[in-house]
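Quick check before the chapter quiz. The format below is the same one you will see on the exam, so make sure you can read both the input and the output lines.
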Amino acid sequence: MMKEAIVGSVFFGIILTIITFYMGNLLKRKLKHPLANPILISGMAVIGILVFFDIDFDTYNKGAKYIGFLLTPATVCLAIPLYEELQHLKNNWLAIMSGIISGIISSAVTVFVLSLAFKLGHQEYVTLLPKSITAAIGMAISKQLDGVVSITVAIIIITGLIGNIMGEFILEKFNIKHPIAKGVAYGSSSHALGTSKAMEIGELEGAISGLSLAVSGILTVFSVSMFASLI
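Here is the expected output.
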């Protein structure tokens, strides 16, 4: 009876998400390891709890979905550090735009080549196309192109997690040290999760990553139809 009362509450999904994410943050601070990612830990913990206690996703999402509503306003808030670093944007606009466009093209080409290699159909291909942009825009694009939205969301999250966890290692291996280059790389390849990592590295990196995230999403909306017609 107690289980039904707790699980049946609209607050169940919200509280479970917040607690697991908080625990993930504690582990990250204690372990200080790239794999100790709060989002990864929280996601695995939630899945484990739902499976162990035989709770269906719709019951959990009844409350958890309200956290998702904060995604768009949180993305808009990235304009604050961008405004504070506006002078850097004015001085380096050509390099920033070149990096963003390169990121969009490389993402689309990667999906195209892998789709050909694994002989994916059109629906699978367009489902993967929005993998490097923020979920709010990626979901809309996937739906518009008749992709599988749930898989698109999963791929977007995985892409962001890889960028968040592996980004610093990759940048170090390729000797990329300029803060603007780091910001563009994070924002144009791994959207909000990459941007959160960029903001940990530095304010300028975070600001440029936020800009790259927004511009990548907008440009992808206008260019995705061209890429979608390739398969």
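If your answer matched, good. Residues 203-228 form the longest helix (26 residues).
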